[in-house]
Amino acid sequence: MDQTLSSLSTFLTDRSLYTESPNLSQSETRCPCCPLCLNGLRQPKALPCLHTFCENCLAAHMDRSIAHEGLRGYFKCPMCGFATSAPVGDETSKQWAGKFPINHLVLVVQEKQTTFCQPCLNDKRDTYSAAYCETCSERLCLACIQHHKRLKIAKDHVVTELNTMESSAIDPAKINLLFRCPLHGKSFECFCDSHQVLCCSKCIIVQHKTCKKVDAVEDLATGIKEGQLCKQIKSKLGGLQSNFQKVQTHWDDNLKEIEQKMTGIKDSIFKWKSTIIKKVEELTSSALAELDQIYGAITNTISSHLEECKSVIAALEISDIMLEEAIQKVDDAECFMTLNKLSNQVESYTTALNNVYETAIQMKLDFTPDSEVQNFQRVSSLGKLSKLEAPVTFRINLKGERKTGGKFKKTATVKSIRKHGKT
Domain named B box-type: which ranges (predicted)? Predict the structure, then answer.
């Protein structure tokens, strides 16, 4: 995933795919989702790169990193690839994920989303909430608050009244947890101009002691909310969202198109199946009818010859009986006349038998498949299926960006703001 995002990052940087961002006041209507499960964030945990995920999703990602990538002792952010080292000690992924700070910048937006108690909603009851459990990332009504407090598993959960949350700013101590040095665990205090990185007090001594320009974060941050950097980053974030939504719409439409095409191809395959079966049935019926006709002709011929043979044999049997009786029971004159008649029969049957021998045939019945039918056995598929890819051109909105020297103007950095003023 990190390679994909890297390629997309290059693509976006080269073309400045940014538009004006939504108004800041719209944040109340936004519902942050976990980039891994794409559901509402639950116990949002922030990595050092500030990418934020559900605690359980983060733990599952760690397990996958070990199982599929063989990474031990560290894991990569699934969005940007930033490597985070494991804490000292033998801990499970769940324990490790639990040690990352809750992203209260996201949590405060989540807290404004739902007005109903989540446990009651699970029971299909609409009950207005009165407090928010930061540990469970759920709103609770008065009754559920009391039940929540009685649960042993929830005794250490942080539950805050909504009135208190909505009327107060985010606790700086909670936000400070998001900005700690991943190497030394200390708060960032300075910014190194040479390396363009945030530094803790130990970083300054170890890695940046020879750097010429290291400024305090507090000095650089003065007026930052009204400065150009904040506006540009906000604009670019909104622009990136807008243009990624265009890409998402493209893939959504593409998926629908493929699903429709899939249905059409299936229909075509079944249609050809029906056509082939129908044709085979027609050919089968025709072949069987022809077989019956030929079989009838052959059996008629054989039956005719059989009847002829049976008739001759019966006649010969009678002649043989007559001769036996004539020899035994009649006088010589009558025997002579009988022999004369039988002699003519013998001559006649001998001629007939010679004709039978000369014209005798063996009737046979055979079937040879048509060459096209034999070739059909070698058909390996009903047709060729192809996966085609075609380039797509997106209409990119370049509002708020000014092209200079063949490239689009980059976002202001801390260095450029210090040189040219904060506004």
Answer: 112-162
**83-129 pLDDT per residue, tens:** 888 776 677 889 889 889 888 888 777 666 657 888 898 888 888 88
Checking if the pLDDT of 61 tops 90, the result is yes
Residues 410, 240, 218, CA angle at the centre, nearest 5°? 55
CB of 43 closer than 8 Å to CB of 104: no
**Phi first, then psi: what are they for 262, rounded to 5°?**
-60, -45
Q: What angle do CA 163, 167, 169 make, to 5 degrees?
A: 130
Rounded Cα–Cα distance for residues 203 and 192 (Å): 10
Q: Is 64:55 a contact under the CB 8 Å cutoff?
A: no
* Other CB atoms within 10 A of residue 123 CB: 8
